[in-house]
């Protein structure tokens, strides 16, 4: 039933919504945590919601790793929020598809509901506390749009 609801929500979810305020959450970085909204004041934050059972997520992880490589030193923060109820499922996925960015676990869907996630993966580009770009699913044209936006935002 949840899958059907996610599918319906994805069909209704608007792509390229005008900037709206983003919900804050803590991002683990090394031994510390940082406020996502505070980080977004210093540079864009790419937030991606994913699950181990998500086929397109297998393609989005290499893309996010490449974003970190290309834009991380220019101020981009990437964080992936996992929605698996069982953390072991996420851990197995990460063994196969390693991440060189922060992972946050949201098994009770608190952040997913706050961001009105409509499908897997769902990504949000946040700058100065505002959601400036959203995508449901993972398609090459969306990835290219995100790269173009980051090129404009970052020196």
Task: Walk me through the structure.
Pfam families: Redoxin. InterPro entries: Redoxin (IPR013740), Thioredoxin-like_sf (IPR036249), Thioredoxin_domain (IPR013766), Thioredoxin_ResA/DsbE_sf (IPR050553). Residues 1-19 form the signal peptide. This is Thiol-disulfide isomerase or thioredoxin. It comes from Ferrimonas sediminum. This protein is an alpha/beta fold and 155 residues long. It has a single domain, classed as Glutaredoxin (3-Layer(aba) Sandwich), CATH 3.40.30.10. Helices cover 40% and strands 25% of the residues. It has six helices and eight strands. It has helices spanning 2-12, 36-42, 57-71, 87-96, 110-114, 140-153; strands at residues 20-21, 26-29, 32-35, 45-50, 77-82, 102-105, 122-127, 130-136. Strands 1-8-7-4-5-6 form a six-stranded mixed β-sheet. Strand 7 and strand 8 form a beta hairpin. The longest helix has 15 residues, at 57-71. The chain starts with a helix and ends with a helix. The model is unreliable at 1-17 (pLDDT under 50).
Judging by the overall fold, what is the CATH architecture? 3-Layer(aba) Sandwich
Global structural class: alpha/beta
What does the average pLDDT come to? 88
Which consecutive residue ranges, at least 5 long each, have pLDDT under 50? Answer: 1-17
Number of self-contained structural domains: 1
The CATH superfamily is: Glutaredoxin
User: Major β-sheet, in short?
Assistant: 6 strands, mixed
The CATH topology corresponds to Glutaredoxin
Number of strands: 8
Broad CATH class: Alpha Beta
What is the rounded distance between the termini?
Answer: 45 Å
Beta percentage is 25-35%
Determine Rg (CA atoms, Å).
Answer: 14 Å
Helix content: 40-55%
The order of strands across the largest sheet is 1-8-7-4-5-6
């Amino acid at each position: 039933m949840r899958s059907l609801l996610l599918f319906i929500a994805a069909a209704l979810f608007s792509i390229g919504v005008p900037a709206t305020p983003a919900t804050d959450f803590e991002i683990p970085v090394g031994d510390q945590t940082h406020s996502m909204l505070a980080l977004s004041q210093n540079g864009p934050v790419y937030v991606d919601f994913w699950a181990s059972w998500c086929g397109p997520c297998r393609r989005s992880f290499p893309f996010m790793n490449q974003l970190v490589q290309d834009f991380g030193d220019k101020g981009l923060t990437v964080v992936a929020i996992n929605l698996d109820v069982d953390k072991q499922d996420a851990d197995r996925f990460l063994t196969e598809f390693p991440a060189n960015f922060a992972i946050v676990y949201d098994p009770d869907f608190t952040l997913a509901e706050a961001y009105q996630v409509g499908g897997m993966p769902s990504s949000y580009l946040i700058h100065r506390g505002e959601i400036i770009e959203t995508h449901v699913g993972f398609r090459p044209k969306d990835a290219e749009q995100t790269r173009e936006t980051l090129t404009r935002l970052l020196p």
